[in-house]
Structures are given as structure tokens and as C-alpha cells.
């Protein structure tokens, strides 16, 4: 039996939590399309579909959807889960070193 990496375990846990989230609220907040089965997002120039029942995340590649990788999964779910309600630009520019 092949042992799972911590990355695989973390991604699987994140995927399992997604079906319980408020998909309509996410779609409205980020201006995304959704249907009864999927939530759709274009993320860093790539099209993704998130299965609303299983949490599986796939990207569109070469005329078909294929499973997304750890970095994609965690980045998309972190965006949805950790973005604040009323985000807006501050109008203040700063260097990356000051963040």
C-alpha cells in the first residue's frame, strides 16, 4: 500500500469540506457560473469545475476535464474560504517586502 503524502491528505480533506459550503453565495461573490452539479471558475487563465456533491476539482485541458493538482485545489478553495466579505482595493501601493 502506497503511503499518502501530507499534501494529498490536506487536499483530500479540503475537497471533502467543499460540498457543505454555500455555493450560491460563492458564485454571487465572485461572479461565477454554477448549475446543479458544478461551480465554474476561471483561475489564472485556466477553466475549472468544482463538483458540488463530491468536491472534486477538475481543470479543462486538451478538450477534456482532468483532475487538478494540490496547488490548484488549495489555491481555489483558500480563495473561497478565506476571502473577506467586503473586499476592496485600499488605494495604497506598497512593496512586496512590506506585506
Structural class: alpha+beta
The poorly predicted ranges are none
Spatial gap, N to C terminus? 43 Å
Number of strands: 5
Give me some keywords for this one.
alpha+beta; 99 residues; globular
Describe the overall structure:
There is one protein chain. Strand 2 and strand 3 form a beta hairpin. The termini are far apart. This protein has helices at residues 6-17, 23-30, 70-82; strands spanning 33-34, 38-43, 46-51, 57-61, 64-67. The chain contains 3 helices and 5 strands, in the order ααβββββα. It is 33% helix and 23% strand. A 5-stranded antiparallel sheet has the order 1-2-3-4-5, with helices on one face. The protein has one domain (6-81). The protein is globular, with a radius of gyration of 15 Å. It is of the alpha+beta class.
Give a short synopsis of this structure.
The protein is an alpha+beta fold and 99 residues long.
Helix-strand blueprint:
Elements (H helix, E strand, L loop, with lengths): L5 H12 L5 H8 L2 E2 L3 E6 L2 E6 L5 E5 L2 E4 L2 H13 L17
Antiparallel strand pairs: 1-2, 2-3, 3-4, 4-5
